[in-house]
Specification:
Residues 98-454 form the Peptidase A1 domain. Residues 1-21 form the signal peptide. The protein has 8 helices and 31 strands. The strands form 5 sheets. The protein has an 18-stranded mixed β-sheet that branches. Strands 2-26-27-22-21 form a 5-stranded mixed β-sheet. By secondary structure, it is of the alpha+beta class. It has 2 domains: 2-38 and 280-460, Cathepsin D, subunit A, domain 1 (Beta Barrel); 72-249, Beta Barrel (Cathepsin D, subunit A, domain 1). Helices cover 16% and strands 35% of the residues. It is globular, with a radius of gyration of 22 Å.
Length: 461
């Protein structure tokens, strides 16, 4: 099966990018993939509960886990069970991520945070900033906020974060703060004080009216030492599966699900992507909504799904099953991630996928020198082009089919289109990135442990 598109339609539908921008996205993506892999293998960001549990297993002594922090308080009283926030693409900052505006502190001050389903901790750069990256606007100063509260190292909530190495002793006679360290990779990490603060999110009700919603006592990191690939942002808003994430902290208010719909990157700047907390009844009634199950335990930050194979041009490819395995040591597997731009498959799978596309795309010359993209075609002077269909077959039988503009990309100023999928040569981890998620409404259903996806014109949501 093929998708027949006039060349003029390809130029209107397939997204334009400069080769420089794509190269930058890919470098950042591959760094992220390798460090995500290392985080799992090396058990980075392991909280104190996990460390104490390990000690318990080794010493066989009795152990009483700390009480998990109470959920944040909602201050406006009669709250809705469904609230929608707006997201902005980071393309103007040279970033492949999506950003959310958050107003933090009392009085509230504006900060732009990266939205990340691949991590848990919410954090911002804080004064005094001993080692910080450049951001748009001033750093957050806890002294300017009457709602800022440090978490003591004696507080049970302090055990939810990983402490710096070597750990600092918590002295009984002192009101000592809770230090944290969160690691994203060799070049990306944040260190500071674990604290509580009031977050105000610019949300949009279903009727389209904009309103600020206030959440009190949000656990977050006040980062005094921060470095890494956080271009244009003041920090990060985590939406992972762990108890520290913003999504998890809002579960008492809006339930165990959230969803987003990412507009394509060539959309008018006045059009915003949407993030919705709470049950989305309209989406659940959509006949085009499909589900696949999450795999792995709730102790994982990442949202793992289990792939059985890939479909190219109607053919289910013969990819060895072990290519997709989530191994006992945490390596391998496939995650869906908002913080990675392109889609990446484990090396052995990618080679088979690339070969399938090459076999099914006939009559167009392959062009090189468009690294990091590997499979590119010259479409100069071609009036009609045929491109194979592409989909993911999950182990539970679900299928996710994609429109051509989600897996092919056009190089700006060149009559060249390229496959927007790459391999991960040094990692068995596969990632479904945000480029492939564009114009789909993506549902993270924590209660039923499943991922939902439905094709959608996100600029109309």
């Amino acid at each position: 099966m093929v998708l027949k598109l006039l060349l003029i339609l390809i130029f209107l539908v397939i997204h334009f990018f400069t080769l420089e921008a794509i190269s930058d996205f890919a470098v950042r993506d591959l760094t992220r993939i390798q460090t995500l892999h290392r985080r799992v293998i090396e058990k980075k960001n392991q909280n104190s509960i996990s460390r104490i549990q390990k000690t318990k297993e080794q010493s066989n002594k009795s152990y009483k886990p700390p009480a998990v922090a109470a959920p944040p308080e909602y201050l406006t009283g009669n709250y809705s069970t469904q609230l929608m926030a707006t997201l902005e693409s980071g393309v103007s900052f040279g970033s492949g991520e999506y950003f959310i505006d958050v107003f933090i502190g009392t009085p509230p001050k504006h900060f732009s945070l990266i939205l990340d389903t691949g991590s848990d901790l919410n954090w911002i750069q804080c004064v005094p900033c001993y080692a910080c990256f450049d951001q748009n606007g001033p750093y957050y100063d806890p002294k300017d906020s009457t709602s800022f509260k440090n978490i003591s190292c004696h507080d049970s909530r302090c055990q939810l974060v990983s402490s710096p190495d070597p750990p600092q002793p918590c002295k009984a006679e002192e009101n000592q703060t809770c230090p944290y360290f969160y690691w994203y990779g060799d070049s990306s990490n944040t260190t500071g004080d674990f604290a509580l603060e009031t977050f105000r999110v610019n949300l949009t009700k279903p009727n389209g009216k904009s309103v600020f919603k206030i959440v009190e006592n949000v656990m977050f990191g006040c980062g005094h030492w921060n470095k890494g690939l956080f271009r244009g942002a003041s920090g990060l808003l985590g939406l992972g599966r762990g108890p520290l994430s913003f999504a998890s902290q809002l579960q008492n208010l809006y339930g165990h699900s959230f969803s987003y719909c990412l507009v394509d990157r060539n959309s008018n700047s006045s059009v915003s992507s949407k993030l919705l907390f709470g049950e989305n009844k309209k989406l659940l009634s959509n006949p085009n909504l499909n589900f696949t199950s999450f795999v792995g335990g709730l102790e994982n930050t990442f949202y793992y799904v289990e792939i059985k194979s890939i479909i190219v041009g109607g053919e289910v490819l013969k990819i060895p099953k072990e290519t997709w395995n989530l191994n006992e040591d945490g390596s391998g597997g496939t995650i869906i991630d908002s913080g990675t731009t392109l889609t990446y498959f484990a090396g052995p799978a990618y080679e088979i996928i690339q070969e399938a596309f090459m076999e099914k795309i006939k009559g167009y010359s392959i062009v090189e020198s468009f690294a990091p993209l590997k499979l590119c075609y010259n479409v100069s002077g071609i009036e009609e082009m045929e491109l194979p269909e592409f989909g993911i077959l999950f182990s539970d039988g679900a299928v996710w089919d994609f429109p051509v503009e989600n897996y092919f990309i056009q190089i700006e100023s060149d009559d060249v289109v390229c496959l927007a999928i790459l391999g991960t040569p040094k990692s068995a981890l596969s990632i479904i990135g945000n480029y492939q998620q564009q114009n789909f409404q993506i549902l993270y259903d924590g209660k039923k442990s499943r991922l939902g996806y439905a094709p959608m014109k996100c600029d109309e949501v």
